[in-house]
């Protein structure tokens, strides 16, 4: 019974807080950064990333060799803009700055190595 009361208290506390909206931090020069990106090469199901996450076919996120694990970024490609986060720091292939998980690449329509726009996500 006590566990149920704690759960209710936590839910009520969360609802009382205002929800911040995520926006993009403007890149140097006033716009977006450009980068080459490609879908992440298929790995084994339940592969663990360098950020300590377990990947599945439904995982949404990006690999970037420098940005910290968990960094929130906006990726824009083909008229789609998505909020995602860095889930790995080890690229599976050369010639790109970002790798998108298969599910994320499908979501934005990315096929092969293409130029994408990106910026850091901020709360506003």
What is the distance, rounded to the nearest whole angstrom, between the alpha carbons of the first and last residues? 38 Å
**Sequence of secondary-structure elements:** HEEEEEEEEHE
Helix fraction bin: 10-25%
Structural class: alpha+beta
Major sheet description: 6 strands, mixed, barrel
Q: Whole-number average pLDDT?
A: 81
Number of helices: 2
Overall outline: globular
Low-confidence stretches: 1-20
The Cα radius of gyration reads: 17 Å
Major beta sheet, strand line-up: 2-8-5-7-6-9
Strand content: 35-45%
Number of strands: 9
List the helices and strands and how they pair.
Layout lengths: L1 H15 L5 E3 L8 E7 L7 E2 L5 E2 L6 E2 L8 E6 L2 E9 L9 E3 L1 H7 L5 E10 L1
Parallel strand pairs: 2-8, 5-7
Antiparallel strand pairs: 1-9, 2-9, 3-4, 5-8, 6-7, 6-9
Explain this structure.
There is one protein chain. Strand 3 and strand 4 (54-55) form a beta hairpin. It contains two helices and nine strands, in the order αββββββββαβ. With 124 residues, the chain is an alpha+beta fold. The strands form two sheets. Strands 2-8-5-7-6-9 form a six-stranded mixed barrel. The protein has a two-stranded antiparallel sheet with strand order 3-4. The N and C termini lie far apart (38 Å).
Keyword list:
124 residues, alpha+beta, 6-stranded mixed beta barrel, two-stranded antiparallel sheet, 18% helix, 35% strand, globular
């Amino acid at each position: 019974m006590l566990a149920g009361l704690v759960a209710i208290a936590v839910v009520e506390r969360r609802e009382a807080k205002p929800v911040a909206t995520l926006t993009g931090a403007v890149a140097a020069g006033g716009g977006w950064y450009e980068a080459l990106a490609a879908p992440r090469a298929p790995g084994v199901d339940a592969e663990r990333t360098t950020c300590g996450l377990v990947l599945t076919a439904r995982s949404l996120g990006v690999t970037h060799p420098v940005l910290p694990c968990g960094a929130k970024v906006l990726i824009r490609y083909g008229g789609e803009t998505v909020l995602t986060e860095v889930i790995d720091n080890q690229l599976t292939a050369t010639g790109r700055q970002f790798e998108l998980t298969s599910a994320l690449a499908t979501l934005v329509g990315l096929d092969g190595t293409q130029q994408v726009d990106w910026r850091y996500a901020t709360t506003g």
